[in-house]
Amino acid sequence: MRTAELGAFLRSRRERLAPATVGFPTSTSSRRTPGLRREELAVLAGIGVSWLIRLEQGGANRVSAEVLNGLASALQLSPVERAHLFSLAGVHLREAVDGTAVSEVHLRLVEGLNPNPAYLLDHHWNLVTWNQAEEDLFPLLADPDTGPRPNLLRLFLEQEVLRSSIDDWPLEIERLTQQFRSHLAMFPSPILDDLVSRLLKAHPEFDQAWSRHDVAPLAPHLRVINHPVGPGGVEQQRFEQHRLGLPDQPGWQLVLFLRR
């Protein structure tokens, strides 16, 4: 817990918040400092004023997720600011940052990566958007039965076509499981816990990989795709795959394939 930085961050967010936006009087004659008073923030966050003073002055040794959630809501923090608040306090986010809408900026980013295949994963490992090159590489994404936001793990475990098109499918399942375990530790979520429970019951490959408790980073690696060409033909396409975090969407990933 970085107490001094936490206190400074809370003060800066409190001082930038206009009282009128949260229903307090806006008269400047009775206000000596900008933004909200500590008493006002304490009311909004549902905590004691003395406790808020200790937090802002760096005198607290620990703080609960409930208090942090109350402060984040009262201060109207963005998803990135909320994640930063929890990080400073040394507390794991109970759930990944809310909000699954894909911004126009991210849509343009994924489309702009053509002709390199690319897709975007949200914090639940659902594919929320992909470009045409990705759909050409994996045509199943265009299948209406796949759904608008298919889950990456379920695709790899349940779609038979991927077992033949992914040249090292067993190793890829191991790799994805290890990366997913790392992700779950950083962005815990009941939705992900439920997903794990269902996959453990339905897929022995996932059960075996999960039971080893191995973890892995989002490191680049070589991917070989057996891509159908013509009647009954197959062409091996080699890519360097990169999985990159999005700073403005904690828990989201941009997955990019560069041809080799």
Walk me through what this model shows.
The chain is α+β, with helices and mostly antiparallel strands. The chain folds into 2 domains: 3-89, lambda repressor-like DNA-binding domains (434 Repressor (Amino-terminal Domain), Orthogonal Bundle); 104-259, Beta-Lactamase (2-Layer Sandwich). 45% of the residues lie in helices and 14% in strands. The protein has helices spanning 3-16, 38-45, 49-56, 65-74, 79-89, 104-112, 132-137, 152-158, 160-165, 169-186, 190-202, 204-211, and strands spanning 118-121, 127-130, 221-229, 233-245, 253-259. It has a 5-stranded antiparallel β-sheet with strand order 2-1-5-4-3. Strand 1 (118-121) and strand 2 (127-130) form a beta hairpin. Helix 11 (190-202) crosses helix 12.
Q: How would you summarize this macromolecular structure in one to three sentences?
A:
It is elongated, with a radius of gyration of 23 Å. Helix content is 45%, strand content 14%.
Sheet-strand content, in percent, reads 5-15%
Mean pLDDT: 87
What is the CA-atom radius of gyration, in angstroms? 23 Å
Helix content: 40-55%
Order of helices and strands: HHHHHHEEHHHHHHEEE
Largest sheet: 5 strands, antiparallel
Class derived from helix and strand content: alpha+beta
Strand arrangement within the widest β-sheet reads: 2-1-5-4-3
Shape: elongated
CATH architecture of the largest domain: 2-Layer Sandwich
Give unreliable regions as ranges: 94-99
Tally of contiguous helical segments: 12
